[in-house]
Design brief:
16% helix, alpha+beta, two-stranded antiparallel sheet
Length: 195
């Protein structure tokens, strides 16, 4: 069964051992995803006047499987696996024209209790080999995992920080700010003549 609602705070106590739960989340059924999408559209390089709400064509979808396991090495640990799919409005970093961008991120993560962070085996690790595969390592405390924070990190690490509407974008004149894709300004004509 696939669920369509998941709170941003995952309570580890409420998860049954070895019971895989699958969720299909999107910005229309989760307010905290709507908030993440609005943050994406307001990142540096996004539209100059950040929207109060997201654009109508924008979306943020997350498919996630959650499984709780328990053993003597990792204690109660949680596996998260899935993908993030996003389409959003932003601005070209060269000419500041509005444009569309998108990304898809696959993730695999293992959350283990924070008390294990002090163990030298895990102290400086970013990944862990668990469940027969390598995945990102995270720690949780007080039986709580903040999913919004986890997805925010995944998006921040993977989003295109330098969006271009075209590789051939000429950008803007550094003197007057004219969009050089639309016309050559007097400053660019002067530079052409002096070369």
């Amino acid at each position: 069964m696939v669920d369509v609602f998941l709170n941003q705070i995952l309570n580890v106590r409420k998860l049954a051992l070895n019971n895989e739960k699958t969720f299909q989340l999107n910005d229309s059924n989760c307010d905290w995803l709507k908030f993440l999408l609005s943050e994406i559209e307001q990142l540096p390089g996004s539209s100059q006047d950040p929207p109060q709400d997201t654009h109508k064509d924008s979306y943020l979808n997350i498919d996630i499987k959650i499984v709780k396991k328990d053993n003597s090495e990792l204690l109660e640990h949680i596996f998260l696996e899935g993908s993030i799919d996003c389409f959003y409005k932003t601005s070209c970093i060269r000419c500041l024209n509005d444009m569309n961008d998108s990304f898809t991120i696959d993730f695999k993560a293992c959350f283990i209790p924070k008390i294990l962070e002090k163990n030298e085996i895990y102290a400086d690790q970013l990944t862990i080999y668990a469940n027969s595969e390598e995945m990102e390592l995270y720690f949780y405390e007080e039986q709580i995992i903040d999913l919004k924070e986890f997805f925010h990190e995944q998006i921040s690490l993977n989003i295109n920080q330098f969006p271009l509407h075209s590789e051939e974008c000429k950008g803007m004149c550094q003197v007057c700010g004219e969009n050089l894709n639309e016309k050559i300004c007097v400053h660019q004509q002067e530079n052409c003549c002096t070369l």
